[in-house]
């Protein structure tokens, strides 16, 4: 008997998420020095981790023989102070991805539905399928979530609605007032999972706290991976009502977030100088990439995140051509955008090199015609 025959049928058809290629893998494949490769594929922070977070992580490592705080008490207290909420309104996860999975554990079963935009973060669909529920995908409108169409897609079987703002991979946002009105109009049996992984880069993000105070079934999801440069430590969190947080905490594994990550995340919340610097550099870098793409005759989608969507024609071909030159970007065929690539905003020098390599590719392409 084959092992596969013992597995649940849904596992055999479950799609697999493909992350951005690591620098070391690319270096090995194309025979380049890893030091000469620039990765602008996974929306990582190009200036590194928060210095305060690094110091706190080093201190925590000295007690590596001890189990982490299973309740993330110190981190939840720090989050409560930051958000002016109560500690028991938070659930901390191994990245905000785990919070998405916890929502599936708590609320999704075969026959249920989850509404989401498309293209959007692929994990929404993967989590829905993992629990045997049906993903109901609503096409974006002008690269933004079509909230009216998403509301119309809600049925009596809908349990969750996923909205990312800014949306990944487009970098687009829905105005705060529109988001709040959408949330208030959802029926009482529907939970809004509002993914705010890139909200700190947004000009005027929606504030879910009034909705929570009203008793709405909403949860905001945040991460320390992007703004604070702690992607490798995998720390994210959700904030919601006490009832929601309690349900999700019942579904998570003990010690799901390591002590080093907890310490680094708590310290990063106080690193205001680092945050201000990165936000400033990201704004400048985003403008640099937009202007550079325009000069090359390439269309972009206005972004309020730390990445930019660029229309190049054949995204996979461009991905391979740039990779051969030591530049890793993200092709978007898996997102239904085969003509586009997603570029993480790098440092000024990294952006300069990327634009120069793109210009060379275009020149070579035109010369070959």
Description:
The protein has 2 domains: 3-48 and 272-367, Aspartate Aminotransferase, domain 1 (Alpha-Beta Complex), CATH 3.90.1150.10; 51-268, Type I PLP-dependent aspartate aminotransferase-like (Major domain) (Aspartate Aminotransferase, domain 2, 3-Layer(aba) Sandwich). 41% of the residues lie in helices and 15% in strands. The chain has 14 helices and 13 strands. Strand 12 (330-331) and strand 13 (340-344) form a beta hairpin. It is globular and about 60 Å long.
Q: Tags for this entry?
A:
seven-stranded mixed sheet, 2 domains, alpha/beta, four-stranded antiparallel sheet, Aspartate Aminotransferase, domain 2
* The CATH top-level class label of the largest domain: Alpha Beta
Number of helices: 14
Estimated radius of gyration: 21 Å
Portion in strands: 15-25%
Strand order of the largest sheet: 2-8-7-6-5-3-4
Q: What order do the SSEs take from the amino end to the carboxyl end, as H and E? A: HHEHHEHEHEHEHEHEEHHHEEHEEEH
Q: Which architecture of the largest domain does the CATH hierarchy give at level 2?
A: 3-Layer(aba) Sandwich
Question: In terms of structural class, how would the helical and strand content be classed?
Answer: alpha/beta
List segments where confidence is low: pLDDT < 50 over at least 5 consecutive residues.
Answer: none
Short description:
The chain has 369 residues and is of the alpha/beta class.
Give the helices and strands, then pairings.
Layout: H1 9-12, H2 23-30, E1 38-39, H3 51-61, H4 73-83, E2 90-93, H5 96-107, E3 113-118, H6 122-130, E4 134-139, H7 147-153, E5 158-164, H8 176-185, E6 191-195, H9 209-213, E7 218-223, E8 236-239, H10 242-251, H11 259-268, H12 272-295, E9 299-301, E10 307-311, H13 315-324, E11 327-328, E12 330-331, E13 340-344, H14 348-367
Helix pairs in contact: 3-11, 4-11, 5-6, 5-10, 12-14
């Amino acid at each position: 008997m084959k092992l596969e025959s013992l597995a649940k049928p849904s596992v055999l058809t479950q799609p697999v998420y493909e992350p951005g290629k690591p620098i070391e893998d690319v270096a090995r494949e194309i025979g380049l020095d890893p030091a000469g490769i620039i990765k602008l594929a996974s929306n990582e922070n190009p200036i590194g981790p928060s210095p305060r977070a690094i110091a706190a992580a080093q201190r925590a490592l000295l007690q590596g023989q001890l189990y982490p705080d299973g309740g993330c008490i110190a981190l939840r207290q720090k989050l409560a102070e930051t958000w002016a909420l109560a500690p028991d309104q938070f659930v901390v996860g191994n990245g905000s991805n785990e919070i998405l999975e916890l929502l599936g554990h708590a609320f999704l079963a075969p026959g249920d539905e989850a509404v989401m935009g498309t293209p959007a973060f692929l994990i929404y669909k993967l989590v829905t399928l993992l629990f045997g529920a049906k993903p109901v995908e609503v096409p974006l409108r002008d690269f933004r979530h079509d909230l009216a169409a998403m509301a119309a897609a809600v049925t009596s079987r809908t349990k969750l609605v996923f909205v990312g703002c800014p949306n990944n991979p487009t970098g687009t946002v829905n105005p705060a007032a529109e988001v709040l009105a959408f949330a208030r109009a959802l029926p009482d049996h529907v939970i809004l999972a509002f993914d705010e992984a890139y909200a700190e880069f947004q000009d005027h993000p929606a504030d879910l706290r009034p909705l929570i105070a009203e008793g709405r079934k909403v949860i905001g999801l945040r991460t320390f991976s992007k703004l604070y440069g702690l992607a490798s430590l995998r720390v994210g969190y959700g904030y919601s009502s006490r009832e929601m947080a309690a349900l999700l905490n019942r579904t998570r594994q003990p010690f799901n977030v390591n002590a080093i990550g907890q310490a680094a995340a708590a310290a990063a919340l106080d690193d205001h100088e680092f945050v201000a610097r990165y936000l400033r550099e990201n704004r400048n870098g985003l403008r640099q990439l937009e202007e550079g793409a325009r000069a090359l005759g390439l269309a972009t989608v206005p972004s309020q995140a730390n990445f930019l969507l660029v229309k190049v024609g054949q995204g996979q071909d461009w991905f391979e051509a740039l990779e051969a030159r030591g530049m890793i970007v993200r092709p978007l065929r898996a997102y239904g955008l085969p003509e586009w690539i997603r570029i993480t905003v790098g440092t000024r020098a990294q952006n300069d090199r990327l634009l120069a390599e793109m210009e060379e590719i275009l020149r070579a392409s035109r010369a070959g015609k």
